[in-house]
């Protein structure tokens, strides 16, 4: 008979409601079950004890179980690495590709045949096993003690994060393991965590200290309901248990969820990286190998509303709470003076909800007959002893209790007790409704600053007469930022307005600033996102409808529209003139400037495209015309500009033909495009012929001339082959022209030989052979003259020996002219000075002129040297011993020490005590018959032979007046300007020879010649220039003068001094 008695109430009444357990002898009324049942269930029924026994059996084999093995980090690392290397058959754990581990993991999850067991050191509380972060209570020693202390106090330290000042969890007095006290996780390959959310939907943060990657899959809180519904569809039987999602036993492949419309995100967490999950975000994952991670929960201000929603959800599935949400909020409200503005506002919102709910629930309880009440300090009661017997919520603010010791929250007073009437039940409360109102009032006072700000926002935004300015909106936003106001609807509204207005203002500024010019066009190969005029008008309407006042921008853009419309009228007028029959057609530069002006608006305008097309057509016609009308004038190949003429490369012509076909799609056979195409094909054929000619190693200058005459009309083509052809033609013309000259020189002949040798055509010609003969004759002639005239060790080349001296003027001035031995001169260097003359006649005239001035200057040099000391003329530049023997040159009267003189065998033929210095005796004195014999063997039209004509002219009488200067090919400088030169610079030597219009101002100018002829400027006012030698001055005396006054000015100064003028 015991089986018919209820094991809860002990009564045997209502037998129709007694349930008999299938596995044991216990019985229970339907209304005594927890939770109470409305009726007798169908099928078999088991008591809670038997159900718990069966569930415990299932739990031992359902995916996870607690192992009894103990590991250190080192031994677990050995176990984990050994498992991975053996499972994947590799040498090192890192050798396994990451993707392969992920694929194998999900294969194993859904393979019912293949069983793999791994271990996971999960949920290890740091207060027992230690933390991966330094902690404030730790003893920090060693050389890095300061660094450890820094990390121990750091906000991102997971031991500190949950209890930071702005964290809601900091108001919970007891440390909740796993939520406020971090847990550590030592993972290995395939160790996993199934789909779940965090307790009370708090945030979580996970840090991977070291090791291999941890793979995360996440579903945002907004998609949580979709995820739960999807899983119910996938496993309808398993989800009959309401709190199935609150157990970490659900594994679903993310690919399946994505296929069913659930948004799934993945994160690959490497060592040294944080992963944060947001409220109600479902997440799952696994480890790819050995790693060490640490995790904890935290709750910023915005979590409070999410936490309240979570408690409601927990009550629906009858899940126990980790802590009382109401108790947390009331603790914060009771110490509101310690809260910041943002947290005070969030707490106020929660308190308003709590006060409203408590008022309604208590009123309803009284209406249902509850009359007894008493204050209860719920916080001193253990959480397990103050849960609602129906929904398992931890009560704090109020609860209803019956005489049998049962307790429910005010939401479920109907499920308290079937025997105790409401009038006998006791309403327990922590605060009265009035006290809750006082806490709300204290929070409102605490948040006065925020509400004042909110009132300003409301007044600003709700003014129907005037729109707010953007600056006023920004000012309120700045206040909210500086005061750290929470993210409430007024703030969100201000941010939206600011964002909208800033975006519109930025768009307007971009439009007003126009196009930013760059080196390359940026609109090619991308969509044209510019506005047109219609779009600008729509944008003006948009600006006028903004929540902020932007009339200034509206007026600026309206002015821009007026400028654009004026430009459009100008552009259309220019286009019409180009397309119609008008006399005043705009130039290409005007059209381009007009088009660029339109581009500067950075607005999509059809007229801009039309202008560019007009410009393109005009430029195409100009370029095509240059090719179509290409013609070389006779003898163009001999001009200096021939090789630098503008020509066209094949790709340029192809582009021109392609552009022409696009611009003139309906052109006929005689159109410029087709004619250009035909010319291009002809030019390519000509190039092919040139290639064949250049490959022919036997071709000579005649072949080159014939080929050039055949392809000359295609000379406009610019290719490497055609360039080589033109270079050969120019080389041929230049050589032929120079060979046809009446006179040649050794240097000229050597250059021509080199030109022929560098040409593949001339080297095969008879012209090259003739030049080689001339070259050999001139070299032989030079060699013979060197043997006749030049000493073995000489200071002078052949020209300097044969012609009259060019150093007399400098010597008269007293300049120091050092001499240098000419050793191993090349044949062409013997005739170096002949390069100054174009013809032999020029050379002869120069030699005659030089002879005439030499007769005058040698007399001046004799007079000057007679007055100079031996130190001024001898090569040693010193006076020497007083009794030293001196030699005087019989020609120039220069004095030399006997020991400083160079003796020449020729001096032995002169009378005793007769001496010629090295400057006067420059070379040997051969017989004239030997010289004439040498000249007869050389080309008679050469300058080298013509130079010998000077020998015959020595017997001719000298002309009385100096010949005009013929040295037109010498480089001459300009005289220093008296205006811009200093006095010292005016007395410096002139290292040039004067032009005809730069005559010396002396009455009788000696017209000196030389490389360093000295000039001096009169500084008395006449600004006349004089040669040193023409006024009897030397370089030394010129340097010693403070200023120079010519004889003309000197006479004038004396006359003024004798006859002063009164002023």
TrEMBL record:
Origin: domain of life: Eukaryota
UniProtKB keywords: Chromatin regulator, Coiled coil, Dioxygenase, Iron, Metal-binding, Nucleus, Oxidoreductase, Repeat, Zinc, Zinc-finger
JmjC domain: residues covered: 150-315
Domain (PHD-type): residue spans on this chain: 3-53
Subcellular localization(s) per the UniProt record: Nucleus
A cellular component annotation (GO) from this entry: nucleus
A Pfam short name: PLU-1
SUPFAM superfamilies: Clavaminate synthase-like, FYVE/PHD zinc finger
Molecular functions per Gene Ontology: histone H3K4me/H3K4me2/H3K4me3 demethylase activity; zinc ion binding
InterPro entries per UniProt: JmjC_dom, KDM5_C-hel, Lys_sp_deMease-like_dom, Znf_C5HC2, Znf_FYVE_PHD, Znf_PHD, Znf_PHD-finger, Znf_RING/FYVE/PHD
Coiled-coil positions: 550-577
Keyword Thylakoid: no
GO biological process: regulation of DNA-templated transcription
Protein name: Lysine-specific demethylase rbr-2
Species of provenance: Trichostrongylus colubriformis
């Amino acid at each position: 008979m015991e089986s018919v008695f209820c094991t809860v109430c002990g009564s045997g009444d209502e037998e129709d409601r007694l349930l008999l357990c299938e596995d044991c002898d216990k019985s229970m009324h339907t209304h005594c079950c927890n939770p109470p049942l409305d009726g007798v269930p169908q099928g078999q029924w088991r008591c809670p004890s038997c159900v718990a026994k069966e569930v415990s059996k299932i739990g031992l084999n359902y995916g996870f179980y607690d192992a009894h093995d103990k590991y250190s980090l080192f031994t677990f690392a050995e176990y984990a690495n050994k498992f991975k290397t053996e499972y994947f058959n590799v040498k090192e754990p890192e050798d396994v590709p990451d993707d392969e581990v992920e694929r194998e993991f999900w294969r194993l999850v859904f393979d019912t045949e293949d069983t793999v067991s791994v271990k996971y050191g999960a949920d290890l509380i740091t207060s027992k096993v230690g933390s991966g972060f330094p902690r404030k209570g730790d003893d920090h020693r060693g050389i890095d003690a300061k660094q450890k202390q820094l990390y121990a106090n750091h906000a991102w330290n997971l031991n500190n994060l949950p209890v930071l000042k702005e964290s809601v969890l900091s108001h919970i007095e007891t440390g909740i393991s796993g939520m406020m006290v971090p847990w550590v996780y030592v993972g290995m390959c395939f160790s996993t965590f199934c789909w779940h959310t965090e307790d009370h939907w708090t945030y979580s943060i996970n840090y991977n200290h070291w090791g291999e990657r941890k793979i995360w899959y996440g579903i945002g809180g907004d998609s949580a309901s979709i995820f739960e519904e999807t899983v119910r569809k996938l496993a309808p039987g398993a989800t009959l248990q309401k709190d199935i999602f609150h157990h970490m036993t659900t594994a679903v492949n993310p690919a399946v969820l994505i296929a069913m419309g659930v948004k799934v995100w993945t994160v690959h967490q490497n060592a040294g990286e944080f992963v944060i999950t947001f409220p109600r975000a479902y997440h799952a994952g696994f480890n790819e190998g050995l790693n060490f991670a640490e995790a904890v929960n935290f709750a910023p201000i915005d979590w409070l509303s999410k936490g309240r929603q979570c408690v409601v959800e927990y009550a629906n599935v009858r899940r126990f709470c980790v802590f009382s949400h109401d108790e947390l909020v009331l603790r914060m409200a009771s110490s509101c003076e310690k809260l910041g503005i943002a947290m005070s506002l969030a707490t106020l919102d929660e308190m308003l909800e709590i006060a409203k709910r408590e008022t309604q629930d208590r009123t309803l309880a009284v209406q249902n007959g509850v009359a007894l009440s008493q204050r209860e300090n719920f916080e001193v009661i253990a959480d397990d002893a103050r849960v609602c017997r129906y929904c398992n919520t931890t009560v704090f603010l109020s609860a209803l209790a019956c005489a049998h010791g049962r307790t429910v929250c005010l939401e479920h007073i109907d499920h308290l007790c079937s025997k105790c009437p409401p009038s006998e039940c006791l309403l327990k409360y922590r605060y009265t409704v009035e006290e809750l109102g006082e806490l709300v009032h204290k929070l409102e006072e605490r948040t006065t600053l925020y509400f004042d700000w909110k009132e300003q926002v409301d007044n600003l935004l709700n003014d129907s007469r005037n729109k707010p300015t953007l600056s006023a909106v920004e000012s309120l936003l700045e206040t909210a930022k500086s005061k750290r106001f929470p993210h409430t609807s007024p703030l969100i509204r201000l941010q939206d307005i600011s964002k909208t207005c800033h975006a519109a203002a930025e768009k307007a500024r971009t439009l007003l600033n126009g196009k930013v010019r760059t080196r390359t066009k940026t609109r090619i190969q991308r969509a044209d996102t510019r506005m047109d005029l219609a779009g600008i008008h729509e944008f003006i309407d948009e600006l006028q409808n903004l929540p902020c006042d932007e009339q200034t921008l509206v007026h600026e853009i309206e002015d821009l529209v007026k400028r654009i419309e004026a430009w459009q009228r100008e552009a259309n007028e220019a286009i019409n003139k180009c397309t119609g029959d008008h006399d005043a057609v705009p130039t290409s530069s005007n059209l381009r400037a007009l088009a660029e002006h339109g581009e500067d608006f950075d607005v999509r305008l059809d007229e801009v495209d039309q202008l560019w097309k007009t410009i393109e057509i005009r430029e195409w016609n100009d370029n095509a015309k240059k090719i179509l009308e290409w013609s070389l004038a006779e003898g163009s190949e001999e001009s200096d500009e021939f090789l630098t003429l503008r020509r066209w490369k094949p790709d340029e012509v192809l582009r021109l033909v392609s552009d022409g076909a696009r611009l003139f799609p309906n052109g006929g056979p005689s159109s410029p495009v087709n004619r250009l195409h035909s010319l291009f094909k002809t030019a390519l054929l000509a190039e092919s012929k040139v290639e064949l000619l250049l490959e022919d190693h036997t071709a000579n200058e005649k072949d080159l001339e014939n080929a050039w005459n055949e392809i000359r009309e295609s000379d406009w083509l610019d290719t490497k082959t055609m360039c080589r052809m033109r270079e050969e033609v120019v080389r041929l013309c230049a050589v032929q022209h120079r060979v046809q000259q009446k006179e040649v020189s050794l240097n000229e002949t050597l250059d021509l030989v080199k030109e022929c040798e560098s040409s593949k055509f001339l080297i095969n010609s008879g012209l090259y052979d003739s030049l080689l003969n001339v070259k050999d004759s001139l070299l032989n002639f030079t060699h013979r003259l060197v043997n006749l005239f030049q000493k073995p060790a000489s200071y002078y080349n052949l020209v300097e020996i044969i012609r009259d001296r060019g150093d007399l003027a400098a010597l008269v001035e007293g300049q120091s002219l050092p001499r240098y031995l000419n050793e191993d001169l090349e044949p062409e260097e013997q005739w170096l000075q002949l390069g100054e003359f174009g013809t032999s006649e020029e050379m002869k005239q120069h030699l005659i002129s030089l002879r005439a001035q030499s007769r005058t200057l040698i007399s001046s040099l004799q007079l000057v040297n007679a007055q100079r000391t031996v130190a001024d003329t001898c090569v040693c530049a010193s006076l020497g011993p007083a009794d030293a023997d001196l030699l005087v040159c019989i020609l120039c009267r220069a004095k030399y020490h006997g020991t400083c003189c160079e003796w020449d065998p020729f001096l032995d033929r002169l009378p005793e005590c007769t001496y010629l210095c090295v400057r006067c005796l420059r070379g040997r004195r051969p017989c004239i018959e030997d010289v004439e014999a040498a000249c007869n063997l050389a080309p008679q039209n050469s300058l080298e032979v013509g130079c010998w004509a000077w020998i015959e002219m020595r017997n001719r009488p000298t002309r009385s007046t100096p010949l005009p200067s013929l040295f037109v090919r010498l480089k001459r400088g300009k005289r220093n300007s008296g205006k811009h030169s200093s006095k010292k610079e005016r007395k410096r030597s002139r290292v040039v020879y004067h032009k005809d219009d730069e005559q010396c101002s002396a009455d009788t100018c000696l017209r000196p010649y030389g490389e360093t002829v000295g000039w001096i400027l009169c500084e008395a006012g006449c600004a006349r220039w004089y040669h040193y030698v023409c006024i009897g001055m030397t370089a030394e005396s010129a340097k010693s003068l403070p200023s120079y006054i010519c004889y003309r000015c000197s006479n004038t100064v004396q006359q003024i001094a004798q006859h002063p003028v009164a002023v």
